[in-house]
Amino acid sequence: MTELLKTSLHNEHVKLGAKMVPFGGWDMPVQYTSVKDEVLAVRQKVGVFDVSHMGEFFIEGVDAEKFADYLVTNDILSAPQGKAIYSPLCRENGTVVDDLIVYKLHPGRVLVCVNASNIDKDFEWMNSHHKGFDCVFTDKSGAFSLLALQGPEAFSTLKPLLKDLPDIEYYSVYETSFGNHPVIIARTGYTGEDGFEIFGSHIAIKEMWQMFMEKKVTPCGLAARDVLRLEVCYPLYGHELNDEINPFDAGLGWTVKLTKTNFIGKSALESKKAKYKTVKLTLDKGIPRENYPVLDGQGTVIGTVTSGTMSVITGKGIAFARIEIEKAPKDEVFNVDIRQKAYPAQLTKKPFVTGGHK
């Protein structure tokens, strides 16, 4: 059995009594106190997550932006410097390799943050398309730790530690120093609240974590992170996205910029029609879980739950479900099969919870 990887903060989590679980090959904190307390801390005040298991790739050189733009479906070239851009990474046939964020740090220097379980797969895929671009492409995941400071008090908590931190826009990135350590600060996150993701050396992030603990910032685990992202309807690779579907199937058509000159998968996506649609469902009774069947009003299976949980904020069951478009009920009547019993589910057009990001 392969030994689980550990982040630079692993000992801190153990000292705090976190419940540790395997996740993407890493030994990660799933919760510290309770999921409810951690979710409420992020929605109402501020919480911090260790997300050092994520991957960091750097593209540096004359063609850095061109290479990044070719790799992904979204428009990197037109975005101003200092912006973060969310995008799927696709194969030639239009299926999704991963979803990621591209950070335009400054001309000729781009950071790409990828999902932990896909680091090797993503790097190999991107590197296989590197030929012809005048830039250096490196995987620096092992050199970085990453914190996600999230919640309405995130800026006021971080500002005193970084004296020159401007009140940057949502989905912007800024390079600065924390003491003697260079850090990359992005106003991004996976909770729907205001917040920052802080990339730095293992030493810098350990020091920053300690300062957050002294400031009584609530440490939060993966369970709270999953509830938070689902409440605001953010997709998760391996659930709403996978190797078999394309961005249109996952409701991410807005990230596919077919007006771009070229990108991997463009020709396939130009002629591709969605086979599935991703819907949001609310249940007054019952908790939907991944892979539970979704039924129409006549009891016919029309899809499956891709992510499901009990919302801390609404007190109801919430779910993403992947529905076959040809079977989508015109009367919009949905049920979720929970242990051989059909529970009514209401189709929800907007996110279950409105976050407070800038």
Description:
This protein has helices at 10-15, 35-44, 64-71, 119-127, 154-158, 202-214, 222-231, 266-271; strands at 19-23, 26-31, 47-50, 55-60, 84-90, 96-106, 109-114, 136-139, 145-150, 173-178, 181-186, 195-200, 218-220, 276-283, 293-295, 301-310, 317-324, 334-338, 341-348. By secondary structure, the chain is of the alpha+beta class. The protein has 3 domains: 10-49 and 144-231, Probable tRNA modification gtpase trme, domain 1 (Gyrase A, domain 2), CATH 3.30.1360.120; 56-138, Aminomethyltransferase beta-barrel domains (Alpha-Beta Plaits, 2-Layer Sandwich); 276-347, Aminomethyltransferase beta-barrel domains (Elongation Factor Tu (Ef-tu), domain 3), CATH 2.40.30. The strands form 4 sheets. A 6-stranded mixed beta sheet has the order 10-11-12-9-3-13, sandwiched between helices. A hairpin with a 2-residue loop joins strand 6 and strand 7 (109-114). Helix 2 crosses helix 7. The mean pLDDT is 97.
